Structure formats: structure tokens, C-alpha cells
Amino acid sequence: MNILGIESSCDETAAAVVENGRLVKSNVIASSVEEHKIYGGVVPEIASRRHAEAISGVVRTALEQANCTLDDIDAVAVTFAPGLIGSLLVGVNFAKGLSVSSNKPLVPVHHLRSHVASNYISSDVEPPFLCLIVSGGHSHITAVNRYTHYKVIGKTRDDAAGEALDKAGRVMGLAYPGGISIDRISKNGDAGAYTFPHPKIDGAPYDFSFSGLKTAVINTIHNARQKSTEIKIPDLAASFQKSVVDCLLANLEKAAADFGYDKIVLAGGVSANSRLRSECAALCGRRKWKLYLPEPKYCGDNAAMVASQGYYEFLSGVRGGAELNAYATMPIDIVNF
Predict the structure, then answer these.
(1) Is residue 48 within 8 Å of residue 11, measured between CB atoms?
(2) Is pLDDT of 311 > 70?
(3) 208-238 as b/e: b if 16+ CB within 10 A
């Protein structure tokens, strides 16, 4: 089966063709990130306008690179939640029109589920497994018992890990996206130079809280400026990144041990973070757990992961119609459309 995937949840307009959920035949991305850099973050209105301008050409190119026509496509999968509502609506409405005009089934796909599926196109992993989903808007520990069955074990109570990294990077004066800049500059820093708290939530041992960490790094910078003390940004970045990663992996390790999972999967944009990948590999090595990591090119938003998850949603009977809408928020384990 060939699934055409369409992704437009944030600032990447993407389309891809994937065969049987695993074989990527094409994966095309048009990003407006350079334009958003001017403002230090994604501007929703600009993002949705760029999607509207790019989506037709991106889909056409994906079909051409896959050496396909719409006649060769078995279903159209599209991200419908969660994300920026204006951006999502561009993709959803385009996919609905394509579905009607080509008489192909329409398959709604949850954005976080598709991030998990980035591992299906990167490896031979199959459920059940425990997945740490880490992105700019989400931080989840999720049990994936079947391809379309998810159970959230832990999640952030405030900021997501990626959001905290991006905002901390901005305060440090680093280039947008801050999380990527922190990862890059941390390689030249001392991760033990600064000490930050490790937030814990009473009664919720698997949940995260990153707002305090973010505030701590901001206060560190402000205090140093008031005292005219020099701040070594590489050291600060490395120390902050270490604290974020330590929080993520401490809860992941506890959840895996408590629930008996020996297959660990990383997913989401922050799964490309070099320290998170290396420390998680070390953890799984000590625990003798099997670790699966998405290829870096599939960590960020892309349509190949949408097409992959769309394949498994299609097999489970998920369909959308003319009434399909986009939603800014929706839990990964309860999908309504």
C-alpha cells in the first residue's frame, strides 16, 4: 500500500509517499524557519500563509519523486491535531479536497503518534514498547502497546522540554531555534559548571515540570548581569541541557522499570539532541534494554512519519470525511475527529 502523507502542524509544509508503513519513497519539506528566525519564534499567521503557498507544489513534488500518480496512492493521511490551528487547517482542507477529487480514503493522524512512527521508517521496531516523546510543545512517557493503542504514563505539567530549551537559548542570546543552538554550543561547555534543580511532582513520579528549570537559568543570567559577573555561555548551556536530559531520563528509567518495558523508543524534535541520545543509550546499555532512535532527518516535523502512522491507522479502520476538522490540542491516547 502506498500512503500519501501531508504535514502542516507548525512551520514545515511537508508531503511524502510511504509504502506499507516502512519504505519511504519520497519525503519533501518546505520550511519557513528562516523567516521565523527574524522574530525569534514561529509566527502563526506567517506559517499558515506559507503553507497555503507551498502545499500544492510540495505534494506534486512528493508524488513525482516517488514516481507515483494519485492513481497509485491507496489513501491520503494528514495531520489533524495537535498544532497551530491555522497551519493545520491548510493541510486538512487540502487533504480533504484531494481525497474527494481522487476518490481516495482520508486518514486523520495525530501529530505525536506520527512522531512515534518516525521509528518505524528508521528501524524494525514493533510494539509493545515505552516511548519518550520530546518536542517543542510536548513531553510524554507513553506506552505503545499496539500501533494505534497508546497509554500516557507521564507528561509535563507546564513547559515542554523543547520549549524550555528554546526559551533558555533565547535568553542566552543564541540563535533560533534555541534548543538546537544549545546542543551545538554545549559541546564546548562544562556541564558541571552550574547546578540547577531537579523538579519532582508529589504523587506523580513520571510527570515532568520544566518551568522552574527555565526560570532558574533566566535568574542565573539576570543575577550575573546585576553583579557584573561573567557568564560562560557554553558552560551555562551545557549545564542546563544536562539538567533537562537528567529529568527526562530519570522519569523514563523509573517508568520502564516499574511497568516492565525493555524496549525504549525516543521520538519528537528533541530526540535529535545529542546529549539525550547518548545518555539514553548509556542508560539502556546499563539496564540491558533495547533502544530505538529515529534517524535525525526524521526527528523534526515531516510527512514520512505521517504516512507511516497513517498506514497503521488505515489498517485499524480509521477514516475521515468531509466533516474532518483540525484541533489545536488533543490527547495522544484519545483521538476524536
Answers:
(1) no
(2) yes
(3) bbbbebbbbbeebbeeeeeeeeebebbbbbb
What is the residue-wise DSSP string for 29-95? EEE-HHHHHTTTS--HHHHHHHHHHHHHHHHHHHHHHTT--GGG-SEEEEEEESS-HHHHHHHHHHH
Cα 171 to the center of its chain, rounded Å: 23
E strand or H helix at 109, and its extent? strand 106-110
What's the CA gap between 95 and 89, in Å, rounded?
10
Which amino acid, one-letter code, is at 182? I
State the Cα angle at 289 between 259 and 187, rounded to 5°.
Answer: 115
> How far is the C-alpha of 188 from the C-alpha of 174, rounded, in Å?
14
**Which tens digit of pLDDT belongs to each residue from 97-151?**
999 999 999 999 999 999 999 999 999 999 999 999 999 889 999 999 999 999 9
CA distance 325 to 81: 9
Are 128 and 266 contacting, i.e. CB atoms less than 8 angstroms apart? no
- Greatest Cα pair distance, the chain, in angstroms, is 67
pTM, entire model = 0.95
Instruction: Scan for cell 500518480, then name that residue.
Output: 69
Residue 271: which of 77, 116, 63 has the closest Cα?
Answer: 116
H or E element at residue 185: helix 178-186
